[in-house]
Amino acid sequence: MSKTSGDQFHIGIIEFLWSVKLFAASVTIACIFSIAVYVIMTIFAEPQPVSTAIAATASAAMAKVEVGARYISPMWSIFVFNTIAIFTASFGTGLLSYIHNVFSGEFSFRSKHPIYAAVSIKMDEMFTIFYRHIRHFASTLDSDLSKIETIIITEKNTHLDENTSSVWDFCGYTREDYRMFAYFLSYIVPVLMLIINGIILGIMLAFFVFNGAMSGYESMGMHGMVIGLFYTISYFVFSILPHGIIELPILFLAASLGYRFAHVQSEAIAKENFFMGDDIESINRDVSRINSMTSEYLKSRYLWTVFGIAVILLLIAAYIEIYVTPVVLEYAMGAVEQLLNVGFA
Q: Is the pLDDT of residue 139 over 70?
C-alpha cells in the first residue's frame, strides 16, 4: 500500500460524485418505469383498481418505517432504519469481504471429499454461465477487469500443458472467474444500497407526478395538468427537503466510504495477483491479506469518526422530519396555493 494508517480509505469528491450519479440514475429510471406502468395500467384497466395499485406501490416504499413505528416512536423508527442503512453501506461493505474465508474453507473441504466436490462442481456450473455474461459486460466498462482477464488468460495459456493438480479442479468455475468475483464482491453493498434507496425515491416521485398530472387533467384538461404537476411536485419537494438536505448527503457519504474500500481492495486484487495460486496454502495467504486490509478499514479512526458524525446528523434529520418538515410543508404549500390562485386565476 502506498498510504498507511488507513489513509487509503479516505474519500474525496470522486467517490462522492460516484454515489450521487448512481443514486440519481436509479431515481430517474425507477420514476420513468413507474410512470410507464401507471400509464399502461390506466389505459388497460379500470380507474379504481389503478388508483389502488398506485397508492399501494407508494405505500410499500415506506413500509419499513411504518412497521418500525408500531414499536417505537416515528422519529426513532426513521433514525434506526437510516442508521442501519449507512452502517450497511460503510461497515457492511468491509464485513462482506470475510466471505472469502468461507470459500477457502470449502476449497479445503472439497479437496478431501470427492463426492461432495463432484456435487458442488455441478452446482457451480449452473451459475457460472450466467456469471460469465455479467463479468464480460462489466469488463467492457472497467479497464481493470479487462486487465485481470488478460493476465489470467496469459497465465492459463502459459501453463496449459502442465499436468499439475490445482485447487480450481475442485470447482465448477475457473481461477479467472473467482478473481472476477473477488473484484466485484466489495462493490455489491454500496451499489445495492444506492440503487434500492434510489428506486424507493423514484417510485414516490412517480406517484406524485402521475397523480398530479391525472388529477389536473380530470379537473381542467391539458391546462390543469400543468397546475397539478406544479402542485404535487412542490408537495413532494417540500415534504423531503428540510430533512433530505441532511439525510441524502449522509447516505452518499456512507456509500462513498464503502465504494472507496471496494476500490482499494479491488485494485490490490488486480495489481498484486491475488488468487493466482493453485494450492490451498496460496489461497489462504491471499485471504489473509484481504482480511488484513479489511480489518484495517473496519478499525480505522477515519471510518469511525465519519460514521459517528453521520449518526448524530441522522438523529437531527429524524427530529426535523417529524417535528419541522410538517410545519415547513404547511407554510410552503400555502404559498404555492396562493401563487397558483394568482397565476391561474
A: no
Residue type, 22: L
The region of weakest confidence among 116-130, 135-149, 217-231 is 135-149
Residue 169 is predicted with a pLDDT of 84
The pLDDT, as a whole number, for residue 176 is 78
pLDDT exceeds 50 at position 159: no
**Residue 102 to residue 93: CA distance in whole angstroms:** 16
DSSP of 53-94: HHHHHHHHHTHHHHHHTTTS-HHHHHHHHHHHHHHIIIIIHH
Instruction: Please compute the mean of the pLDDT values over residues 108-119 and round it to a whole number.
Output: 85
- CA atoms in the 13 A half-sphere facing the CB of 17: 3
Residue 54 near residue 210, CB atoms below 8 Å: yes
Q: How many CA atoms lie within 13 A of 126 on its CB side?
A: 5
Separation in Å, CA 298 to CA 20, 56, 103: 24, 39, 21
At 76, which amino acid appears?
A: W
d(CA 60, CA 13): 33
Overall pTM surpassing 0.85 (yes/no) = no
Q: Which residue from 312, 163, 325 is spatially nearest to 250, judged by alpha carbons?
A: 312
Sorted by sequence, the CB contacts under 8 Å of residue 154 that are 6+ apart come out as none
Residue type, 178: Y
Closest CA to 318 of 59, 69, 21, 16: 69
pLDDT at 73 exceeding the cut of 80: no
Amino acid, single-letter form, for residue 115: I
Give the number of other Cβ atoms within 10 Å of residue 219's Cβ. 12
In the block, which residue shows the cell 474519500? 11
What is the residue-wise DSSP string for 284-309?
Answer: HHHHHHHHHHHHHHHT-HHHHHHHHH
pLDDT of residue 67: 54
Cell triple for residue 107? 476449497
